[in-house]
Amino acid sequence: MKDHVNTNLKVAITGNPNCGKTSVFNALTGLNQQVGNYAGTTVDKKTGVLIYNKTQRAKIIDLPGTYSIYPKSKDEEIAIEAIINPESKDAPDIILVVCDASNLKRNLLFFTQVADLGMPVILVLTMLDIAEKKGLDINLILLSLNLGVKVVAVNPRNGRGIEKLKDTIFNTHRLTQNKLIDIYSLAPEMIAGEKKLHPAYSDYQCLLNLYKTKRDILEDILSQETIKRYDAINDVLLDSVTQKIIEKEQFSNKLDKILTHRIWGYAIFLFILFLIFESIFSFSKFPMLWIQDSFSWFGNYFAKHFPEGPLNNLMVNGVIAGLSGVIVFLPQIILLFAFIAILEDTGYMARVSFMMDKLMRKVGMNGKSVVPLISGVACAVPSIMATRNIENWKERIITIMVIPLMSCSARLPVYTLLISLIAPDKNIWGVINIQGLILMGMYLIGFFSAIAAAWVMKFIIRSKERNFFILELPTYKAPRLKNILLTLVEKSRTFIWEAGKVIVAVSIVLWMAASFGPGKSFERIEEKYKSDFYIKNFSEKEISNAEKSEKLFASYAGHFGRFIEPAIKPLGFDWKIGIALFSSLAAREVFVGTMATIYNLGDDSNSMNIRQRMMDEIDPVTQKPKYTVAVAFSLMLFYAFALQCISTIATTWKETKTWKWATIQFLYTCTLAYLVSLVVYQAFR
Amino acid sequence: MLTLRDLKKGEYATIEHITDSALRLKLMEMGCLPGETVKLVQLAPLGDPMAIEVQGYRLSLRLSEAGSIEIKRITKEPKIITPIS
Question: Contact A134/B56, CB-based, under 8 Å?
Answer without folding.
Answer: yes
